[in-house]
Each structure stands twice: as structure tokens, then as C-alpha cells.
Specification:
six-stranded mixed sheet; transmembrane; signal-anchor; Na/K_ATPase_sub_beta_sf; transmembrane helix; three-stranded antiparallel sheet; alpha/beta; Immunoglobulin-like; ATPase activator activity
Length: 223
């Protein structure tokens, strides 16, 4: 997520991008995930490799392959043929974690460890995932953000997840950051909405202060 505000209209208006421009921007960003360049041969299927062996592969310069098809549940609504949802007022936004050299996430192993705001969503299948949840930043935003679907490898619309096997990042050549899609399925139009997408793990500091963006990204939606 590289912008602080996303504004679009189905037809070009001052200060807004057309749907075509939004699609082109996403396509340009996503080229690296379909490009079979010289680094493609240095990518491995990390899901099929025991976790304790992965660090050795990473030290050799190998990294996990991440395909644009590696998101669930299907069919993926965040695709070019579906205009990434922008033509229907259901925008898809890419959310990824910053590259932090050597960082290994410590994930939640029981419901009691999970922050209260997402505790009701936690399931044992999430033990090996960094969790990501998007929501309205302030109560007024929450009231106008009616439905957000998370499309990720985790396969749970209520919350997204990135598998821990992608970590640690060791500055491997050609490393491609894993990401999730957040689709804002139902939001109020003609209102500027403050959105926060927050990552959750035991070693990502959480704060009850809604202004604290540690481990989170803030952006605004308007259409």
C-alpha cells in the first residue's frame, strides 16, 4: 500500500482517477509476481519444506515463491477481468508487510494470547500466520465500512494471513513480498473514510491508541 488516499470515479473527474488508471497502477505493481526472470529459478515452494530447513535455503539466496493465485477463498474477486472491484464500488487494496531484515514473527498459539479486538476470529489453523485485519479507524468510519473481505493464503474472509514460512527476510535477490487483498465490499460513498490495516503477532507491538500506527498502515478511501 503506497498511497495515503485512494480516490476514483467511473468517469474522470478533477482529483479522481479513472477505473482504467487504477487497474493500470495495480497491474504495473504486480508485474514482479508474474515475471519469470533470472531470479525465478531461485524461488522455492516453502509450503512443502519443513520449517527448520528453510533458513538454510534463505541463507543460500533462495526465497519463497508467491503466486498471484495463492489467495483464497476462490474465486478471487480481485483480478483484472473484474476491474479489481473498482467498477462496482468494491475496491481491492493490496496490503503487504515491510521488509525487516532477520525478523521472525512469533505467532499466537492460543486464543488467550490474541488481542481482544480479533480474539473472536482466531482459530487453531491460524497458529502459523501473521494476521492482518482492516477496519475503519474511528467509530464514525466503522459505522460506514459495512463489509471488508480479506483474500489471502489463510482462506478466511474475516481476517487475512501471511504464512510464517516467508520469514525471515535475508535480503535474497529477487525476493517478492507476500501480500493479501482487502476488498471493501460495502462502504459508504461520497464520504472520506479513514482505514487502518493492522498486522498481528506477539512480537508486533499493539496499542489501544487508535492513532498509533505501529504495525499498521493508514489510508483513506473516497469514491
Amino acid at each position: 500500500m503506497d498511497r495515503s488516499i485512494i480516490k476514483w470515479r467511473s468517469s474522470r473527474k478533477t482529483g479522481h482517477e479513472s477505473i482504467g488508471q487504477m487497474i493500470d497502477n495495480i497491474q504495473e505493481w504486480g508485474k514482479m509476481y508474474i515475471l519469470k526472470d533470472q531470479f525465478y529459478q531461485q524461488m522455492i515452494d516453502c509450503a512443502a519444506i519443513p520449517r527448520h530447513l528453510l533458513i538454510n535455503y534463505f541463507r543460500q539466496g533462495l526465497s519463497c515463491i508467491f503466486l498471484v493465485t495463492d489467495v483464497k477463498p476462490g474465486p478471487n474477486p480481485c483480478t483484472k477481468p473484474k476491474s479489481y472491484g473498482y467498477n462496482k464500488g468494491r475496491p481491492c487494496v493490496i496490503i503487504k508487510l515491510n521488509r525487516i531484515f532477520g525478523w521472525i514473527p512469533e505467532t499466537y498459539q492460543s486464543k488467550e494470547e490474541v488481542p481482544i479486538e480479533i480474539r473472536h476470529l482466531w482459530q487453531p489453523a491460524m497458529k502459523n500466520f501473521v494476521l492482518i485485519k482492516c477496519f475503519g479507524q474511528y467509530p464514525t468510519d466503522e459505522d460506514l465500512v459495512y463489509q471488508v473481505d480479506h483474500i489471502s493464503i489463510l482462506g478466511n474472509k474475516a481476517i487475512g494471513g501471511i504464512p510464517t514460512y516467508f520469514f525471515p527476510f535475508l535480503n535474497q535477490p529477487g525476493y517478492r513480498q507476500p501480500y493479501i487483498w482487502a476488498q471493501f465490499v460495502k462502504i459508504e460513498s461520497n464520504v472520506l473514510l479513514n482505514i487502518v490495516c493492522r498486522a498481528y503477532a506477539k512480537n508486533i507491538r499493539q496499542s489501544t491508541n487508535i492513532e498509533d500506527m505501529t504495525g499498521a498502515v493508514h489510508f483513506e478511501l473516497f469514491f
